[in-house]
Amino acid sequence: MEKNNLEEMKKFFFYFYSEKSEDYFSINGVHNRCELPCEEDHPQYWSNTPFKELSQLDRNVTYDWAVFGCSITFGQHLPIKDTWPYLLGENKKSSVLNFGTPGCGIDGIWQNIKASSQEWKFKKIIILFPDFHRKIASFKTGPLVLRWPVVLTNSHPTPWDWNHYQDPIGQDLAVDQALIDQQSEKTLRELVEDEQSTYSKKIIDDLVEFCESNYETFYGSWDIEVDEYLAIKGISRLPLYDVTGPKASDGVHPTRLQNQRFVDTISSVI
Predict the structure, then answer these.
(1) Looking at the domain assignment, is residue 48 inside a domain?
(2) 72 CB contacts (<8 Å, ≥6 apart)?
(3) Which residues pair with 74 in a beta bridge?
(4) 39 Cβ partners below 8 Å, 6+ apart?
(5) 42 domain-assigned
(6) What digits encode the pLDDT tens for the residues 230-265?
């Protein structure tokens, strides 16, 4: 499936979709390992397979770790060997499944934990929570449920600039730009009105109950508010991920330096 394959583009949506009411929340992620802008014709550029970097792994074996988070855990604009899950595996000489996905909020992490627990075997979990101000927006078109992130920040009021993408993207999926925008604005309003972050806090409570019953789990965040909530709830947590330092090629995300620092900091704790 190549970048210029128009037939594949017609089936493409920028976040994973499925016929299930609850399923993985993920993004293709090909260009998230590039220095943008990038015109390389990547293999599987147009792909809706969630976590494709795990697609060649054996699902019949038990892995040491599964890690969940957002773009920091995925390693946006970094080679795999510079991501903190990879560095963790090197440090511990253990196997690590990386379920981090760009744009993911706490609800997306919860979706991915539930979905992966049905398909993969792993002993321990590390969750690096993003901030509270993210939420999955979705709507159903035909038999498919489309899902995408809405982030409550000044710089990302909507999930993406649709004008950047040209037809025939999503034609076969009957992706309605007006409906995408409408649902994004609705979700954004819900985030604005949820001044106490009740939505995300309730998800953390449910998530912790599930993980504590099934796995040895370690919780952390790069957001001070989330870290404080974990402390208030009496949830044992990892040291705060320190984002300060150099930036990746996009000028936003952290680099190997911060990731190595995080792994060095938590290695004795876990």
Answers:
(1) no
(2) 84, 100, 128, 130, 222, 241, 243, 253, 254
(3) none
(4) none
(5) no
(6) 999 999 999 999 999 999 988 999 999 999 999 999
